[in-house]
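Batch job 17 of 40 flagged for manual review because the log was empty.
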Amino acid sequence: MSHRIIVDVMGADNGSGVVIRGAVAGARRSGASLLLVGNRTVIQNELEDLKTKGLDIQIEHADTVIQMNDPPGTVMKEKNDCSMAVAVRLLKEGRGDALVSCGNTGALFTCSSLVLRRIRGVRRAVLAAVVPLDNAFVICDAGANTEATPEMLVQFATMGSIYAKDLLGYANPRVALLNNGSEENKGTEVQQKAFDMLRQSRLNFIGNCEGRDLPADFCDVVVCDGFIGNIALKTIEGMGKLVGRVLERIFKKNPITMIGYLFTRRSTNAVRKQLDHTEYGGAPFLGINGVVIKAHGSAKEKSVTAAVRQAVNCCEMRLVEKISEEIAALRTDGEGNDQQKG
């Protein structure tokens, strides 16, 4: 079955052309159809220079653009006719199966939450980013919620586990709480209460995770609020770029090291690929009643291509339906427990 992916082509740091070219490549590789949302003239001019024969590509015009520095609420008020808002409404209307946007994260989160609404029983949706290290793991939250209650962190862990199980293939994902120490009493009252709740949950909770544990195959899902998670994610991405620069500097040092590179090129390129955050393209908002993928604002073509494939994967794994079923089961268990206590 071919899925139609709605792509908001406006508002990205590197321009609409990069998004359009990446989306077309993603559609060709995944067999998806596209609904490109943005300035019609800009889109048509870009498509003229691309090989689109055999692809099902539609265009929806939108004049206004949400900028990266616009307050999140702008998308629902002053700029409710922007490409992002139009794209979200098209998903709500069933014109597509998933949405990809490189635009303003806060605006996309706000618009998706208000228009598509959250899955019943979900307190707050969460941005789930995959970090492709030795053991790929999911960070929940990677930037959607700057604060979180213990109850929200437990739901983040539940939704992240479903995502890790279906996307990464982990049968029983190990869940850890990102904290400033491994002991049970570490962190604020929020982390301490979340620790107790996670320990009592049905999840495979393995305890607290320190920042240094993240690259060490410690867990499959790491849970935190979006403020901490975004800092952790971007620190890891920055370290990945640093390793790439260091390797390049070492191999270019002299003729002997350049010859050494020829013998180690395959392994070196494998390391580069492993540290490349663009491999997964973007991060879905788990808990939203629809598949919404937030790609990097500074995304290049490769990253947008991966985001389109990721959107297709989320549709095929029935991610929204599975989260709905799991949250409903938790609510039923909770109501049952309350009745028993009463």
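Reviewer: the log was empty due to a logging misconfiguration, but the result itself is present. The chain has ten helices and eleven strands. Unflagging and moving on to job 18.
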